[in-house]
Amino acid sequence: MSFNHQEIEKKWQDYWAEHQTFKTNTFSDKEKVYALDMFPYPSGAGLHVGHPEGYTATDIFSRMKRMQGYEVLHPMGWDAFGLPAEQYAIDTGNSPAEFTEHNIATFKRQIKELGFSYDWNREINTTDPNYYKWTQWIFTKLYEKGLAYMDEVPVNWCPALGTVLANEEVIDGKSERGGHPVVRKPMKQWMLKITDYADRLLDDLEELDWPESIKDMQRNWIGRSEGAEITFNIDGYDEQFTAFTTRPDTLFGATYAVFAPEHPLVEKIVTSEQRDAVNAYRKKIETKSDLERTDLAKEKTGAFTGAYAINPANQEKMPIWIADYVLMGYGSGAIMAVPAHDERDYAFAQTFDLPIKEVVAGGNVDREAFTEDGAHVNSDFLNGLMKDEAIGQMIEWLEDTGKGTGKVTYRLRDWLFSRQRYWGEPIPIIHWEDGSMTAVPEENLPLELPELDEVKPSGTGESPLANSDWVHVTDPKTGMKGRRETNTMPQWAGSCWYFLRFIDPNNPDQLADPKALKEWLPIDIYIGGAEHAVLHLLYARFWHKFLYDVGVVPTKEPFMKLFNQGMILGEGNEKMSKSKGNVVNPDDIVSSHGADTLRLYEMFMGPLDAAVAWSTKGLDGSRRFLDRVWRLVVNEQGVVSEKIVDTSEATPLEKVYHETVKKVTGDFEHLHFNTGISQLMVFINESYKADKIPKAYIDGFVKMLSPVAPHLSEEMWELLGHEDTITYEKWPEYDESKLVEDEVEIVIQIMGKVRTKIHVAKDISKEELEQKAMENERIQELIKGKTVRKVIVVPGKLVNIVAN
RNA sequence: GCGGGUGUGGCGGAAUUGGCAGACGCGCUAGAUUUAGGAUCUAGUGUCUCUUGACGUGGGGGUUCAAGUCCCUCCACCCGCACCA
Predict the structure, then answer these.
(1) Do the beta carbons of residue A600 and residue A677 sit within 8 Å?
(2) Among A17, A313, A403, A566, which one is most buried in terms of CB atoms within 10 A?
């Protein structure tokens, strides 16, 4: 007989809701554990089988921690601003708010049907004005501290659609929708000064228990590099420029300079003979997107400006070129080129036949750039020195002579924070007619998004808000007129701090009660997909550090331990996608196999961080295991099986039970759910072989199963005669002494190969063990006529005889 | 190109500090049972060898009494970044 999952799952979900079983007490006396999922964007497609993987992992962890006596915060919410809802609104004329609300309802139903132990009293929705009030509040704080500023930045402008596009909406220089041309157009944008935090974001990675790959990605993204900034005079002009280099030691080998095509000095220094060539080149570059400039540029291109820079080390004239391999956004947008010791400069010099001068010995600069370390040559006071020392000496010389300075540069850019969109948090800024700009005062927050009759592009590149009356404001005191900022925040904004609000979700007076934050921060475990490795996790860390600086949060870092769940692939080992028709819908599985089976299967398929293909057969196997458990506990009449007896006598199951408790507890703690579950299976297999099973073991087993398959476990717990939910029952403990048997099996090897096995008392001495091994008949036979050279004895494990 | 990771049966995957390779599940084989089942139970299942045994963790080499695990080298695949001076 198998259990009726539809009945049982409904029954216990109702019970939990009615009894508020998972309500978290913010200020309880218990030790606190905060287990967080990356909250989802509630898309119209509904839940994907990938979602429950991470959610089940944190749920198992949370449920086990509750049973171990911790107060657990395990919340869920909705990252509900975002492009799809806006696009839907533009396409259909419907309201993005309604669309979003509908999607959330679907997601919530689906998530509830999976039996996760969330405290739904703490549900958060980033589009709720009571929530985004505080997102806006944080923005005004950033603005006050000078960390939010406006700058002219190129955006992807699509004239045909009359709108600005996000990078991911531009494919090969055309709009994803409609394939219209997209051009780069400078517009005034809000920027957040994340670069001020670059060093701290980098350094504090050290103390985090995160996958090394993610930390590395963040390190690369921040891209700290040390070097020097060198000032160059321009021959015949009263102008100077600076160039950043990590190899100031090669300054004597700098034979030309290159500016980014957009470099502001180009206009001033270009000679009349070269003007046409330079303009033509710049025009060509302008139509290329960033992607094309970087991706397709294998061959070096450029144009000579006609001007010369003076090498400050040797006063030699260096022709100044422009080329798109130099990026305006990094360093100062100008470089000194050392073709002998830099591959890019070498390629460029070859293409345009520029001089190559060796200053580091050891390579063959007639054939290729030499980038390794070596003794310096042709370098005056650096001659003979190796790289590190030469760099130090050169920086010293530059600083002494005022020609340059040691400098650290980052790849990380400031965060482009505005979006020309309707469906996002309004940026709470007013631009006054006198040209000044003020933040909306805290008492006027939230600045709510107005309802529009129709969401459609403004046509000017501004957000749809630009055409509504909402933008017009008048200062009640002075009567001055103003215009609201029409840009909204990016989707990242709401997710930068949601984990703080879960701690105190309904606080009307502050972002969260500092006392409560102190109880719960930092987050003990944070699980989500690796696609957020850089942006979300870096932005959230940045805001958190800022909030720490202004005294709002008590910790420097938000997420102590991070884990990335792997992807669930389709049966053919390919990504699930609608077009391949291999998408598995959780609703179907919940209805056919039950939520417990889905949870169990997703945890059993493989390690949590691995990408594993879905298997319907594997899913069936998981259900079969739960049925096996059920049949072991419950007989045909629907009451507890006769095999289960109330006894304290020692039974053959004693050892395997204690082993199971030990392994499952450790494995679940370390998120090794696949191996923990396999141990639960071992216990059940052994129990099937036994005539009688002590009830205490079954009670313990059901407790250990309950985090994985909570509905079934609650049902069995009730049948076993317990009245309350299993949620707060004490987690089983094991007795180490029960794990070792009196007799152990010893492997006897000859030359490292297993020849036989013997049983001996567990505390037998080394000498005795060796003797027993040597006396063994089979061994005697095998070593006859051979010389025993050495015997290695590992007590409790093996004896290895070296004989030949 | 740079950085990170992964290679173990027919498949998903297990294997403390080097100490019985293949736990557990899927699949497969045989038997039992059932009116029937894609149900259930029991046993078996790395490869070759009818036995003894030999071989086996991507390939090659090394250290060791003993290597999936440590070292060198090569190969394949996956992820991220990609002219960042």
Answers:
(1) yes
(2) A313
Q: What is the largest CA-CA distance in chain A?
A: 111
**A798 CB below 7 A from strand B atoms:** yes
Q: What is the mean pLDDT of residues A469-492?
A: 93
User: Given pLDDT bands bounded at 50, 70 and 90, which one contains residue A290?
Assistant: low
Virtual torsion, Cα A733, A737, A738, A744, nearest 10 deg = 140
Number of helices (H), then strands (E), belonging to chain A: the values are 25, 31
Its domain, for residue A179, covers 144-209+415-484
Q: What is the bridge-based pairing of β-strands A170-171 and A429-432?
A: unpaired
* Residues A200-217 pLDDT 10s: 999 999 889 998 889 989
d(CA A671, CA A527): 11
Let me know if residue A694 belongs to a domain.
Answer: yes
What residues of A are designated binding site for ATP? Answer: 578
The nucleotide whose C1' lies nearest the CA of A326 is: B83
A788 beta carbon < 7 A from strand B? no
Cβ-Cβ contacts under 8 Å for A740 (sequence gap 6 or more): A762
Task: For strand B, list residues 684-743 of chain A whose Cβ lies within 7 Å of it.
Answer: 685, 688-689
Residue that terminates a domain, selected from A484, A508, A530:
A484
Give the residue numbers of the binding site of A.
578
**pLDDT at site A172:** 64
A649 and A710 belong to one structural domain: yes
Query: Is residue A729 situated within a structural domain?
Result: yes
Give all strands of the β-sheet with A788-794 in edge-to-edge order. Answer: A753-761, A743-750, A798-803, A788-794
Residue A357: inside a domain: yes
Residues A567 and A63: their CA atoms lie apart, in Å, by 24
Length A293 CA → B43 C1' (Å)? 66
CB A625 within 7 Å, strand B: yes
Distance A270 CA to B15 C1' (A): 69
Residue nearest to nucleotide B5 (CA to C1'): A213
Chain A residues 549 to 568 with C-beta below 7 Å from nucleic strand B: none
A143-157, A264-278, A457-471, A740-754 — which is least confidently predicted? A740-754
Banded model confidence at residue A704, pLDDT cuts 50, 70, 90: very high
In the structure, how far is the CA atom of residue A684 from the C1' atom of nucleotide B51, in angstroms?
37
Same domain, A705 and A774: no
Q: For residues A9 and A596, is the Cβ–Cβ distance under 8 A? A: yes
Residue A749 CA to B18 C1' — how many Å? Answer: 16
The bases of strand B with some atom under 7 A from any protein CB are 3-5, 11-15, 19-21, 23-27, 39-43, 54, 65-67, 78-85
Residues A625 and A729 in one domain: yes
Query: Is the CB atom of residue A224 positioned under 7 angstroms from any atom of strand B?
Result: no
Residues A401 and A422 in one domain: no
Which nucleotide in the DNA or RNA is closest to residue A258, CA to C1'?
Answer: B85
Distance, CA of A790 to C1' of B71, in Å: 25
User: Quick check: A294 pLDDT over 60?
Assistant: no
pLDDT at A457: 82
Is there a single domain that holds both residue A328 and residue A448?
no
Per the structure, the count of domains in chain A is 4
Contact A120, A18 (CB under 8 A): no
Residue A288: predicted pLDDT: 64
Spatial CB neighbours of A187, under 8 Å, sequence gap ≥ 6: A152, A153, A154, A155, A157, A164, A420, A461
* Residue A760 CB lies within 7 Å of the nucleic strand B: no
* Three-state DSSP state, A753: strand
Nucleotide with minimal C1' distance from the CA of A794 is B19
State chain A's mean pLDDT as an integer. Answer: 90
Whether residue A179 is predicted with pLDDT greater than 80 in this model: the reply is no
Residue A175 confidence (pLDDT): 72
pLDDT average, residue stretch A590-618: 93
Q: Cβ of A666 < 7 Å from strand B?
A: no
The enclosing domain of A175 has a CATH number of 2.170.220
Same domain? For A396 and A426 the reply is no
Q: Residue A684 sits in a domain of what CATH number? A: 1.10.730.10
CATH number for the domain spanning A776: value is: 3.10.20.590
Read off the pLDDT band of A299 (50, 70, 90).
confident
Residues A605 and A723 in one domain: yes
Final residue of a domain: which of A438, A454, A484? Answer: A484
The answer to whether residue A390 sits within a structural domain is yes
